[in-house]
Amino acid sequence: MAKRSANTKAASSRRTASTRSAPSRGTMSRAAAQARVAGDVAGFPTTPAQVMAFARKHKVQYVDCRFMDFPGLWQHTTYPISELDKESFTRGFGFDGSSIRGWQAINESDMIIVPVPNTARVDPFHEAPTLSLICDIKDPVTKKEYSRDPRSIARKAEIYLRKTGIADRAMFGPEMEFFIFDHVRYDQSINEAHYRVDSDEGIWNRGSASPGNRGYQVRQREGYFPCPPMDTLFNLRTEMSGILQGLGVPVECHHHEVATGGQGELDLRFQDMVHMADSCMYYKYVVKNVAARHGKVATFMPKPLFGDNGSGMHTHFSLWKDDQPLMAGRHYAGLSMLGLYAIGGILRHAPSLLAFTNPTTNSYKRIVPGYEAPTALVYSSRNRSSAIRIPMYQDNPRTKRIEFRCPDCSCNPYLAFAAITMAAIDGIRNRIHPGDPVDKDIYAMDPEELLSTPAVPRSLDEALAALERDHDYLLQGGVFTEDVIYYWIKYKRDNEINALNIRPHPWEFCMYFDI
């Protein structure tokens, strides 16, 4: 299959031949050596017997079982390697599901964690040789997949897509942006609330009297592609890229992103839905741990800085059947009618879709005018102010895809990718035309024109309300369930929206303290 780039900006990353970044000599050391341990064989194991042989070859002492909780964080539990045998891949290991966010009640807490053999990797960070295995979650009584297991939902979306006959693969290429800070502190108590993040390359440190200040701070919204010494994080991103490639996650390029204060991005080559969601979790794991190794902290929070670009996850999406691309054709921007209908479905359901692709209160501080984040639910070729963009770098049917620019990295990738696919399927099956494209700068539109243009939700509460009204498309084929939709909305409202709403905000003191 021809490769296509996930990056939306750098023309150099659009080539069909993947570029493989290699860490510089100064940053390899222990990290690169451990990465090679994970990648020094022709292929990773795919069967239980191969996993056992792989573990013996690398003198593994522990096995680390990882799974995704409901909101979207990796959880893990670790066993001595003596506890793992071939039957473990069907029998699984028991654990308490009531202690996982958004899962079981205490009176039905027993669950089974079942390792997936083709996810076996040697962990690049643990001191003792440790085998990492991504796991599925099953009910110990019925042995069926747990309906709230995010990975199971993504797998059901893949199965449903094939059953429709529309396509046999949904391919994803997310652009995951993040910040690397040198220091962070935050807290809220009964009488105090504060946060502070700091970065040596942040523009606010330009006047610092520190002996280490060289004056190469990144100006606001001018962080895209500067060379070192302004780009202070080149070696860290290179180290991250090398480790990811050693784990079997294909990296096409890395670069500094637009914002000041340490914003970066590593671009991944596109993969099918479940594999890409797995890769997203390794991406976050590697970025955070490499940063910590160097005394820094990485965050995927969508909007940690005021007055500069936030971190998005622009998501490239295409459908394939029998190894043939389905998005290319002779219509607008080189799209097929199937591609246009997929856009129609995503735009039609976008208000509810954002409850999964932009699932935090902070997400909606990013999607505001003027910061390369979409605020209008329209589509266009080349135009980055639209919710959906059709990249125009190559005239190659195998690279034709659409880019959904709303999502951010706070999402649970299994749920987000499954929901995007279900919206596209609904658009195709019901021939939902997206209407006319909008090729003008949306940020420059006059107020009257903007009022007639459909907009993204302005808050998580709005997105959840839209999900309450519009979720039948997610229930098709039993991919999502009413239970999942209900508890997703309940969890987000109880634990995030309501928790934020009852707390005084520091800016409220600036506005109201002298009333």
What topology does this entry show?
Layout: H1 25-39, H2 48-57, E1 62-68, E2 74-80, H3 88-91, E3 93-96, E4 110-115, E5 121-122, E6 130-138, H4 150-164, E7 169-181, E8 183-188, E9 193-198, H5 234-246, E10 251-256, E11 263-268, E12 271-272, H6 273-293, E13 297-299, E14 313-321, E15 324-325, H7 337-357, H8 363-366, E16 376-381, E17 386-390, E18 402-404, H9 413-429, H10 447-451, H11 460-469, H12 472-475, H13 482-501, H14 506-512
Parallel strand pairs: 1-6, 16-17
Antiparallel strand pairs: 1-2, 3-4, 4-6, 5-6, 7-11, 7-12, 7-13, 7-14, 8-9, 10-11, 14-15, 14-18, 17-18
Helix pairs in contact: 1-5, 4-9, 5-6, 6-9, 7-9, 7-11, 11-13
Your description of this structure?
- This protein is of the alpha+beta class.
- The protein has a domain of 126 residues: Glutamine synthetase, N-terminal domain (Ubiquitin-like (UB roll)), CATH 3.10.20.
- The protein is built from 14 helices and 18 strands.
- The strands form 3 sheets. Strands 7, 10, 11, 12, 13, 14, 15, 16, 17 and 18 form a 10-stranded mixed sheet that branches.
- The chain is globular and about 65 Å long.
- It starts with 24 loop residues before the first helix and ends with a helix.
